[in-house]
Amino acid sequence: MARGFAQSVGAGGRVRLRTLSNLRWLAVAGQSAALFLVYFALGYPLPILYCVIAIAISAALNVALGLRYPPAHRLTNREATFYLAFDVLQLAALLYLTGGIANPFALMFLAPVVIAAATLNLGNVLILAGIAFVSVSVIAVVHKPLPWPEGDALLLPQLYQAGIWTALVIGIGFTSVYAWRIASESSRMSAGLAATQLALSREHRLAALGALATAAAHELGTPLGTIAVVARELERSLPANSTDAEDVKLLREQAERCRAIIARLANPEETLLGATAGLPLGPFLDDLVGAHRGEDIEIRVTVTPSTDIAVPQVWRAPELLHGLGNIIENAADFAHSLVAVEAGWGEQFLHISVTDDGPGFAPKIFSTLGEPYITSRPGHNALDENDMGPQGPLDEHEGMGLGFFIAKILLEQTGGVVKAENLPGGGARVSVRWARGVIDGPQPPTQSEAG
After folding, report:
1. What residues make up the domain containing 219?
2. Radius of gyration of the chain (CA)
3. What is the dihedral of CA 119, 121, 127, 128, to 10 degrees?
4. Residues 249 and 186 in one domain
5. Is residue 191 pLDDT above 70, yes or no?
6. Which residues pair with 278 in a beta bridge?
7. What is the distance between the alpha carbons of residues 353 and 432, in angstroms, rounded to a whole number?
8. Is the pLDDT of residue 378 over 70?
């Protein structure tokens, strides 16, 4: 699902042809109704033939596109920009024929630009906004008279017309920037959450594999025990110099070896397959940091015991493993030589902190830390400010600022409160605090419990 999301955004665009076609049919219907009301019902003079031609061209384009493409066809950014630009120019032509910006319907210039801002990247939005700006400026100076009863004329003061032009230009600029910013943040958050679900599904598969191994161990233990007993009896019944004695002995040894392997798989505390099982806090952290230890970086685990409270048994939930694992991995990547993992507990809270002696979080990203696609990792680039969303499969977004975001989301799902800070003497610290009983309770933490 996550892969499909990113590919559809990057390759096919964000808006369907059917959406723009339906909006254009709505515009054709509204323009036709307004034209009919003004010309036939109110009897105001206007160039009806040219107005009908402008509306007919819009309808003809819709028909042609409907015949050329299927309704579910996704428009590229260039195609969507072209079609929306046509709508801006068609509206400008109608307003030129019916009074310019003095026509109250000049407000409709905002519609195509807002649609572009919600669906296209920043460059195309600026192109649409520029076309709308030029159109508004041209029809503000050159236009046919505003339809009005014969023998009477409505002449607006130039200062008032300048105010209308200013309001339209500011409205186009403000609404386009605002709509694009909201759509961009929504797109990034959706892609980040999709990547979170992808990472969590991997951890769940590992946990399911561990549970499957445990179940298989229990199921296979009995028949393997029977094979070992029968092989032992056959070995005793055969003469010492029998040609089959060595084969039977080998069979018994291999059966006992299989039983030993299965016995290790049946013990969740000794398997590395990620089964959801409770471990004391110290061994839990030792097991967690084992995969991240290297020759250049020392990862030191310190557990501060409580004199009057028993050591908590922490559940190996997939959300907890992946969230803490991401934080430890990031610390190891940025540390110069040492990563300190510290933990402690009391009657009300259990806390774990990860500290590194690296450069700390970059000041330019610290205020947005925890949002998707925010990174200062050397050699990697997150999304630029003018990118609407990620391009390509989410599996290829390693090192693009999703690690801390995913860790924060998953740890918050377990009920944890995540805090990141830079240390005065250098380095960074990420600490997580849980209420007692959330990750060390009688049942594994779940998303519903965390919420």
Report:
1. 210-265
2. 34
3. 10
4. no
5. no
6. 315
7. 6
8. no
Two structure tokens written together for 42: 């109110």
Query: What is the residue type of 83?
Result: Y
What mean pLDDT do residues 204-227 have? Answer: 63
Q: Are 426 and 359 in contact (CB under 8 A)?
A: yes
Domain count, the chain: 3
Query: 61 with 192, same domain?
Result: yes
- Any long-range contacts for 431-435 (C-beta under 8 Å, 24+ apart)? 431/351, 431/352, 431/353, 431/354, 432/323, 432/324, 432/327, 432/351, 432/352, 432/353, 433/349, 433/350, 433/351, 434/349, 434/350, 434/351, 435/348, 435/349, 435/350
Q: Report which DSSP code applies to 301.
A: E
How far apart are alpha carbons 248 and 227 in whole angstroms? 11
Percentages helix, strand, coil for the chain (3-state, rounded to 5) are 60, 10, 30
Q: Can you tell me the mean pLDDT for 401-421?
A: 81
113 and 247 belong to one structural domain = no
Residues 90, 121, single domain; the answer is yes
Same domain, residue pair 6 and 154: yes
> CATH number of the domain that 358 lies in?
3.30.565.10
Complete DSSP assignment for 127-143: HHHHHHHHHHHHHHHS-
Task: Report phi then psi at 309, rounded to 5.
Answer: -125, 130
At 3, the amino acid letter reads: R
pTM higher than 0.90: no
What residue type is 213 in one-letter code? A
Of the two residues 387 and 49, the one the predictor is more confident about is: 49
pLDDT above 50 (res 448): no
In a domain, 273, yes or no: no
Same domain, 258 and 289: no
In this prediction, what percent of the chain has a pLDDT beyond 90?
14
Burial 101-110 (b: 16+ CB within 10 A, else e): bbbeebebbb
322 and 434 in a single domain? The answer is yes
Number of other CB atoms surrounding residue 275 within 10 Å: 20
- Does residue 365 sit in the same domain as residue 235? no
In single-letter form, the type of residue at position 422 comes to N
